[in-house]
Amino acid sequence: MEKSRSIRRAGKYIEDFLEEYVVLDLETTGLSPVTHEIIEIGAIAFRGGVKTGEYCTLVRPKTRISGFITNLTGISNDMVRFSPTIEEALPGLHGFLDGRPVLAHNASFDLGFLNAAYERHFGMPFPNDYLDTMRISRKLYPNERHRLQDLTERFGIERDGAHRSMADCIMTQKAYECMREHCRRQGIVFR
Predict the structure, then answer these.
(1) Minimal CA–CA distance to 84: which of 127, 47, 118, 38?
(2) Which of 36, 105, 121, 163 does the annotation list as catalytic?
C-alpha cells in the first residue's frame, strides 16, 4: 500500500554531531500541520559553531491568530498583516537551506509543518536531512526531561524570547553544542 502524500518524508534523521547545519524553528497557529498554519520561520546557518547567515520572516496565515497563540508567542494578527504568505516565504527558506541538514528541537513538529507546506506548494516532501536535540537529549539523559526549557535549564542557557523562532533557534544551537561537548568529554560517539 502506498503511503499518503501528506506523510511522505524525503529527509533522513542524522544521529551525529555535524560541523555545518541550519537551526530551524517555526511558530504556528496550533499543533496540527493539517489544520493549523505557520506564522513565523526562523533559520540560522552555522559552520564550525560560527553563525554564517540567517533567514527570518513572519508569515501571514489565512486564518486569525488566536489570543492563546498571541499570548504564547507574542505574534499578533496586526504583526503579520503585511507579512508574506507561506507561498511567498517558502522559496526564500528553501534557497537559504540549500540542501543543508536542519537542526531542530522536537524536529517532528517543525518538519511536519514544513513537510505539509512543501507538499502543498512544491508538490514534494521536505527534502533536507535533519538532527533533533530532543532525540539526542533522550539518548544522553534518559532519566531527565527533554523540552527545550529543560535543556536550557540543564545547561544554563538564557531563555530570553522563548517561543519566538530566532530565540528558539539560538537556544537549540547552544543546547546542541553543549551536548556535543558532553559527548566529547565523555568519549561518547554516535553512529
Answers:
(1) 38
(2) 163
Grid cell for residue 188: 561518547
Residue type, 153: E
Over the stretch 105-129, which tens digit does the pLDDT of each residue have? Answer: 999 999 999 999 999 999 999 999 9
Kindly tell me the burial class for residue 131, based on how many C-beta atoms sit within 10 Å of its own C-beta (0-12, 13-18, 19 or more): buried
Find the angle CA(30)-CA(165)-CA(46) to the nearest 5 degrees: 140
pLDDT at 191: 66
DSSP string covering 147-162: SHHHHHHHHT---TTT
Q: What distances in angstroms separate CA 60 from CA 13, 81, 179, one per listed residue?
A: 30, 6, 35
**Which residues, at least 6 apart from 184, have a Cβ–Cβ distance to it below 8 Å?**
none
| Residues in a beta bridge with 51 | 46
> Residue 5: what pLDDT?
42
Tell me, yes or no, if 163 is annotated catalytic. Answer: yes
